[in-house]
Amino acid sequence: MTPQGRARMLRRIIAFIVAVGVMVVLGSAAHSYFVQQAWSIAAGSGDGTGPATLPFADRIAWAAHDLGGMIQSYATLTTIALFVAFLAAGLLARFTGRRVLVFGLAGAVALFTLFSVLKMVLGTVGIFGARGAIGVAAQMAVGLLAGVVFARLTGQPATPR
Fold first, then answer.
1. Residue 74 contacts residue 24 (beta carbons within 8 Å)
2. Interatomic CA distance for residues 159 and 161, integer angstroms
3. Using CA atoms, how far apart are residues 20 and 27, in angstroms rounded to an integer?
4. CB 149 within 8 A of CB 22
5. Are 127 and 75 in contact (CB under 8 A)?
6. Backbone angles phi, psi at 21, to 5 degrees
7. 22-46, pLDDT tens digit by residue?
8. Fewer CB within 10 Å, N- or C-terminus of the chain?
9. Average model confidence (pLDDT) across the chain
10. Residue 108: CB partners within 8 Å, gap ≥ 6?
11. C-alpha–C-alpha distance, residues 104 and 96, integer Å
């Protein structure tokens, strides 16, 4: 492999790691948000009032706790889904030239497919925050963002003049 080929491969590996990091942190945060909203509604229903309030600091602590608890399983499954989707997207992007669009859609479709397969096989999507249509849409948005990050980081380098 040429030095340019090695540099390009290293750039792709680093970009993939960054995209996975974005996906895991934001995906976990989206999950936490939907769980917190459900808790707030349930807590308020218990005493007949409106949704219970949850201080911002508690929300952040809750999200950090969720990230720590989900990181292994969520990161593993979503990373595999992204990897497969990005391999296919790489081939498609070569023909279309629309890297950002293709990788963004690949990220969104990867997470939709993952949660659909989990639902079919296990009877549940595995994480509470992705049970409803809005939760799945939020996870897809996170996948889309991860794909855009990857495409931007691996785009063609500027040619020296």
1. yes
2. 6
3. 10
4. yes
5. no
6. -60, -45
7. 999 999 998 888 888 888 888 877 7
8. C
9. 87
10. 140, 141, 143, 144, 147
11. 14
Q: Identify residue 100 by its one-letter amino acid code.
A: V
At residue 124, the pLDDT reads: 74
Task: Report pLDDT digits (tens) over 116-155.
Answer: 998 888 887 777 777 788 989 999 999 999 999 999 999 8
| CA gap 60, 72 in Å, rounded | 20
Tell me the three-class secondary structure of the chain, residue by residue.
CCHHHHHHHHHHHHHHHHHHHHHHHHHHHHHHHHHHHHHHHHHHHHCCCCCCCCCHHHHHHHHHHHHHHHHHHHHHHHHHHHHHHHHHHHHHHHHHCCHHHHHHHHHHHHHHHHHHHHHHHHCCCCCHHHCCHHHHHHHHHHHHHHHHHHHHHCCCCCCCC
Asked whether the beta carbons of 119 and 125 are under 8 A apart, the reply is yes
Amino acid type, 47: D
Supply 56's token pair: 């911002």
Residue 107: name the closest of 73, 81, 126 by CA: 81
Structure tokens at 78: 């979503």
